[in-house]
Every structure is written in structure tokens, then in C-alpha cells.
Amino acid sequence: MMRHVMKTLSLVSVAVLAACGGGVETSHEETAAQVGQGLAELALSESSITSALQSTLNTGNAKYRWTEGSLRRFDFSGSATLAQADAAVLALQEYEAYAYFGSTQALSYAGFKNTLYSEFQPLHSQILSTYGNGTETVQVVTHYYEQLVAAGSTGWFRLTVLLFPQSRKVIVFEQTGYEV
């Protein structure tokens, strides 16, 4: 069963990615200052991921008790830039911490594989074959931060936004790891 939820999201520009050629440090002040810099709102409609992707994700999640991954699919109409897609995802409450902490880096799709924990690496080729049209260049931005989650224990948090511009899909992969 497909679940469709229409969400219109306010945007926070991350256009600095293009201007800086990749990785940039972000802070709460930078992000707040970028609000309303001319990006149009991007309406995302959430749909379920395929059962094959869900199965691969479940296998990865079952491998270790100290790592976890989640995968979401959003569709959009018209056209979108990576900055628009990224800002729309960061506007979701569950991902807003990524806009304020850590680092942001634009990657190639091939480079995305290097950010995946080993248990989630099978998702790399499977996402591309499931959602890509075979000719488009998938655009990728990743956000990363770490923080103390308990006395002497660190948590590592990575959010990756994948834009399939011709297929009109935004795929969001979040992985977390914890020191045990």
C-alpha cells in the first residue's frame, strides 16, 4: 500500500554548497540568515519505498545493535535544484538538527557509497536502479555531526539527500551509529 502525504515545506537555502564547491561548515546563524533568499517552495509528496529496498534496509538494521538506518522517498512535480531539495528535507522537524550542527558536503553518487556503513552498502546500487532513469545525474548532499549521547559515548549522525532531477524523486537516507 502506498502512502501519499503532501507536504509544502518552507525552505532554508544551502546554495552556499555550489558557491563553495562542496563541503562547508554550517551554523545556526548561517542557516537562519539564508531563509528567504529567493528559493521557491518545493512541495514533496511522500511515498513508500519498495519492498526490496525495505528488505535490504531491514537486513542492514538487524546486523548490529549500535547502528540504524532509515530510508524515505519523496516525489515532486516540475523541476528542483539540489539546494531546494536539501532545504525542503531540512525543513522537516525530524531532520532540522542537521541544518544547525556539523558539516555539509556535496558528493557524487559514487562518493555517496563511501559514506555508508558496510551493512547499508547494498542500498547504493539498489537505490540507483530503483529510482534512476538510467541517464540522469543524481545529485547528492550529505550532512554529518556527532555529539555526546551518554557519559563516554558518542553518536554519529549522517543525513544524505539524493536528488533524481529527471525522475522527480528525492530519496533521504539517514544513518546513525553509537559508541557502545
**CATH topology title:** Protein Transport Mog1p, Chain A
Which radius of gyration do the C-alpha atoms yield?
Answer: 16 Å
Label the overall shape.
globular
Question: Share of helix among residues?
Answer: 25-40%
Could you give a short account of the major beta sheet?
8 strands, antiparallel
Please, what is the average pLDDT? 82
- Helix/strand class: alpha+beta
| Second rung of CATH, namely the architecture | 3-Layer(aba) Sandwich
Q: Give the N-terminus to C-terminus distance in angstroms.
A: 37 Å
Please give the count of helices. 7
Order of H and E elements? EHEHEHEHHEHHEEE
For the secondary structure, the number of strands is 8
List the defining traits of the structure above:
180 residues; alpha+beta; Protein Transport Mog1p, Chain A; 8-stranded antiparallel beta sheet
Q: Short summary of the structure?
A:
The chain has 180 residues and is α+β, with helices and mostly antiparallel strands. It contains 7 helices and 8 strands.
Could you describe the 3D structure shown?
By secondary structure, the protein is of the alpha+beta class. The chain has a single domain (5-178), classed as Protein Transport Mog1p, Chain A. 29% of the residues lie in helices and 34% in strands. The chain has seven helices and eight strands. The protein has helices at residues 16-20, 28-34, 51-63, 82-90, 97-100, 109-113, 122-131, and strands at residues 5-9, 24-25, 42-47, 67-75, 103-107, 139-150, 153-164, 169-178. The chain has an eight-stranded antiparallel sheet. The radius of gyration is 16 Å and the shape is globular. It starts with a strand and ends with a strand. Mean pLDDT is 82; it is low at 1-38.
